[in-house]
Amino acid sequence: MTENKKIVRVSEVTKNFDLGKIVVEVLKGIDLEIETGKYVSIMGPSGSGKSTLFNMIGGLDKPSGGKVFIDEVDIAQLDAYELAWLRCRKIGYIFQTFNLIPVMTALENITLPMTFAGISNDNATERGMALLKQVGLDGRHGHRPSELSGGQQQRVAVARALANTPAIILADEPTGNLDLTTGEDIISLLKELSVERGVTVISATHDYKMLNVSDQVVWIRDGRIDKIQAREELDIRTGGLETAQT
Amino acid sequence: MVNGPALSANKGDVKRLVALPFKKSIQMAYQSIRVRFFRSMVTTMSLVLAVAFLAFIQVGNDIAQGLLSSGSSDYIHILTKAGFDVSPGDTTIASSAKQRWIVFLSLLVCVVGIINAQLMSVTERFREIGTLKCLGALDRFIVRIFLLEATMQGLAGAFAGALLGATAALLTSLARFGFSMTAHIPWAQINTTLFYTICIGTFLSLAGVLYPAILASRMRPIEAMRVEQ
Lengths: 246, 229
Description:
The complex is a heterodimer of chains A (246) and B (229).
Chain A: E1 6-19, E2 22-35, E3 39-43, H1 50-57, E4 65-70, E5 73-74, H2 80-90, E6 91-94, H3 106-116, H4 121-134, H5 150-161, E7 168-172, H6 180-197, E8 200-205, E9 216-221, E10 224-230, H7 241-244
Parallel strand pairs in A: 3-8, 3-9, 6-7, 7-8
Antiparallel strand pairs in A: 1-2, 1-4, 4-5, 9-10
Chain B: H1 11-14, H2 22-35, H3 37-69, H4 73-82, H5 97-124, H6 126-134, H7 139-177, H8 187-218, H9 222-225
Helix pairs in contact in B: 2-3, 2-7, 3-5, 3-7, 3-8, 5-8, 7-8
């Protein structure tokens, strides 16, 4: 089997937050490699550094020490334009609070990143409608986020994340604001689309429903990686709760 | 999967790869105003009133000037009664220092009001701005959108204010000087005044949004992730 390329490589990353008198060490040395095309979940309790690590990977924050490589490019060396390009074309973001632009319709929300990428209006509309159809919302393309339910908004967000066929999708607690069934729908949608398009999905989450679809689970505790488990090692029988408590 | 250009090579080319067409930014700015119509109205209201006041004073002066230039000596008497500082033999109306001060202060208050309203707007939209950046927007796109919004609000508000002020001035002059004075209204002068007033109003709107827009552009995309519990 050919060695899979490592699309994300985190190398000895540390992050300290300066809160006046105290310096909080949130990440104390993380080494992580994520292969292309995998569905990875980063799990951990609150305060473990999960979101901070996530922000590092997504280029939203700079590490205090160490490096983060996306496709073997050190993202700390990128200037503002390159960073914008990265966020536009290579990474798709999904947020806990959906974060759709409230003044735009669902279709406009999805075609916005395409506009940034320089795609013409007609092409963008066509692709946008196709994406909406895939997430099952093609009848609602003219509706604003305020006219959509939470689950529907998140589905639009998933479609938007895929707008420019990114290599990576970063999902920060995608099911955080959704109920059980809707959450499951979103998770299976993400899994289905990622398998179909070969996108690497990295999700930071509390939600144990993610365990079933993940290829790899990274457990974080206290700023360090506790363990990394591949899907086969997870005890799926009990939904992963037993494994979580070890 | 995307095979983009190597990120570290050809830095110059990368500048052009993320784009926001001007037409699209106008559309976004317009939509922002339209959907938040009530909020936009409130922001523009102070501008309308300040510009109306400015227009009222200026057009009032223009009309008085027109009357004075007409040469009829009756008018001098009425003008003095109306509060203009005119002595026989004068050919121009000078705006008094008091008048200038009041106008200046009202414009200043208006600008401060706009800055405040725009700061609030930026704070409320932190998530939207952070999200736009996560989608790949450059800082200057954000500034551009805010500037365009302010220009639209400024133009609309200044236009409304100028019309309001001019109408008020004409009506008061009619009341003061009687119907006969309509023959002496300096329309060309009034048009020029209105044009300048609208320009000033738009400029004020832009001046008020500058600081908030720069703040907005510096906002880090991580703000979009912040979940307030």
